[in-house]
């Protein structure tokens, strides 16, 4: 059973998400919070597997709350809109496992929770790539690769590059003509060697190192 906590300053949003999630046989909403301070407190009290974290909340915003929870085992799924590109980028750097657009269909919310709960990152190519590239275009890119990247094999480096382009494990497998399980192994080794928590942080590392640059 996936335990979820919903953090949003709008009661209607909290109730709507909670009702949808609770109706699923494999998901249980264990609590909710209307601001960032309460979100951090409730996460540590209730120990959910996933927290849906709104960005703009009173008392403490979702970005700060995400940073405070970075060392906790909970997976943070940030709720956002298209006009919060910078916030999304910073949330990923702070340790979020991904983000979801508030107006996304119900099916996407359910998929997102399940994906994040099993330890993967929610990196939809049509959204994540655009948001990250838009942010990187406005920032100086570090073209010198950090020493950590030299620990990767040629294949692992290619896998990291494809992750940063928004490809799923299945798509990477097709692109490189490999078994999907082999790709999963490469992804795990990339994360381990670079000391990263998940694919979301791998995307950020690839862009910040200059391994991938916006087209």
Compressed to H and E, one letter per element, the order equals: EHEHEHEHEHHHHHH
Strand order of the largest sheet: 2-1-3-4-5
Shape: globular
Relative helix content: 40-55%
* Sequence stretches where pLDDT stays below 50 over 5 or more residues: none
Biggest β-sheet description: 5 strands, parallel
User: Span from first to last CA?
Assistant: 41 Å
CATH class of the largest domain: Alpha Beta
Assigned CATH architecture of the largest domain: 3-Layer(aba) Sandwich
List the total number of helices. 10
What fraction of residues sit in β-strands? 5-15%
Question: What is the domain tally?
Answer: 2
Q: What structural class do the secondary elements suggest? A: alpha/beta
Give me the CATH fold name of the largest domain.
Rossmann fold
Rg of Cα set:
17 Å
What does this structure look like?
With 215 residues, the protein is an alpha/beta fold. It has two domains: 2-122, 3-Layer(aba) Sandwich (Rossmann fold); 137-209, Winged helix-like DNA-binding domain superfamily/Winged helix DNA-binding domain (Arc Repressor Mutant, subunit A), CATH 1.10.10. The chain contains ten helices and five strands; from the N terminus they run βαβαβαβαβαααααα. The chain has helices at 11-22, 36-46, 62-68, 85-94, 106-117, 125-137, 154-164, 169-176, 180-194, 199-209; strands spanning 2-7, 27-33, 50-54, 75-80, 98-101. The chain has a five-stranded parallel sheet, sandwiched between helices. β1 (2-7), α1 (11-22) and β2 form a beta-alpha-beta unit. α4 (85-94) packs across α6, α7 crosses α9 and α8 packs across α9. The radius of gyration is 17 Å and the shape is globular. The mean pLDDT is 83.
